[in-house]
Write a structure and sequence with these properties.
- The protein starts with 5 loop residues before the first helix and ends with a strand.
- The chain has eight helices and six strands.
- The protein has a three-stranded antiparallel β-sheet, with no helix packed on it.
- By secondary structure, it is mainly alpha-helical.
- A hairpin with a 5-residue loop joins strand 4 and strand 5.
- It has a domain of 138 residues.
Length: 202
């Protein structure tokens, strides 16, 4: 039986990683270019008088509303902003969008965000807040735009079901799940990368 050459396997992994990074970079650039091109054409084709009546930028801002809301959440949570992004968001709104999309496209940064939210939940003895979940869900949706037929997802858990340490990340004591604190993470390959964080009860 022929043994697999570890160097060949390593080269294959490096090649896949490089290819993925290229896809991420191309996708982020494509989305940003399309957005700025749409805004630029709209501003060029509409006279100042018409723009006063019907601001053409409003439609683009409406489309970007979920993203702008998430950016607002990050700006107001300086601790999360610093720990996850590792640096403050730029002052310019356009640069904020570019930075957020670039970071959200990387799977390892999504796992890092999950880890930060899980540590918070455990330290404060609570479930993730609505804004924290919104940030995690939106970040995951950005990442999923890189794929066509396979998507990463959050893993939910039903309250009251039996606790299983192999698939649940439990806090407290008990044999049943009292509350879901943070959904788990399943990669686009179907792997459970982070177990759902749950509170236990007897």
């Amino acid at each position: 039986m022929t043994e697999e050459n570890p160097l060949v396997h390593s080269d294959a992994i490096d090649s896949e990683t490089a290819h993925l990074r290229t896809l991420i970079s191309d996708e982020v650039s494509r989305q940003l270019q399309a957005a700025w091109l749409t805004l630029g054409k709209a501003q060029e084709s509409v006279s100042p008088e018409v723009m006063k009546e019907e601001p053409v930028a409003d439609s683009l801002r409406c489309t970007l509303s979920p993203l702008l809301t998430v950016l607002d959440v990050l700006r107001r949570d300086s601790a999360l902003e610093g720990e996850w992004l590792r640096q403050p968001l730029p002052v310019d709104e356009g640069e904020q969008i570019q930075q957020f999309l670039a970071i959200s496209s990387h799977w390892e940064r999504i796992e890092r965000l999950w880890d930060i939210l899980a540590r918070r939940a455990k330290a404060e003895g609570r479930a993730a807040s609505g804004e924290e979940l919104m940030l995690l869900e939106f970040t995951l949706s950005v990442h999923n735009r890189l794929w066509v037929d396979r998507f990463a997802q959050l893993e939910q858990v039903d309250v009251g079901c039996a606790y299983n340490f192999e698939i649940h990340n439990g806090t407290g004591h008990g044999e049943h799940i009292a509350q879901l604190w943070l959904p788990g993470l399943i990669s686009n390959t179907g792997q459970r990368r982070r177990k759902p964080l749950v509170e236990l009860q007897a």
